[in-house]
Amino acid sequence: FLRHTLSSLARELPADFVRINRSQIVNTASIRELKPKSHGDCIVTLRDGTELVVTRNHRLALKRKLDF
After folding, report:
1. Could you count the other beta carbons within 10 Å of the beta carbon of residue 53?
2. How is 19-66 classified by DSSP, letter by letter?
3. Contacts of 20 (CB under 8 A, 6+ apart)
4. What is the pLDDT of residues 22-63, one digit of tens each?
5. Could you tell me which of 24, 27, 31, 35 has the C-alpha nearest to residue 58?
6. Is 17 helix (H, G, I), strand (E, B) or coil?
7. 21 near 52, Cβ under 8 Å?
8. Phi and psi dihedrals of 46, rounded to 5?
9. Which of 1, 10, 45, 50 is least surrounded by Cβ atoms within 10 Å, i.e. has the fewest?
10. Taking the model in full, what pTM does it have?
11. 18 by DSSP, 3-state: which?
């Protein structure tokens, strides 16, 4: 059993993965839509319809990966 932080895991993944909040990492290829939410947060909708919160602390990194 190995323990790693999510930050260290995110650094080891390919460039098309990005951390979107404290506990989730997504593949940018699976993102269908990005919608603004209150207080700087966003909602990301994946191709399968799943909606996830992107916190304001991780929003800029996601937008850079998506070339917004």
Report:
1. 14
2. EEETTEEEEGGGEEEEEE-GGG-EEEEETTS-EEEE-HHHHHHHHHHH
3. 26, 44, 52, 53, 54, 55, 58, 62
4. 999 999 999 999 999 988 899 999 999 999 999 999 999 899
5. 24
6. strand
7. yes
8. -85, 165
9. 1
10. 0.84
11. strand
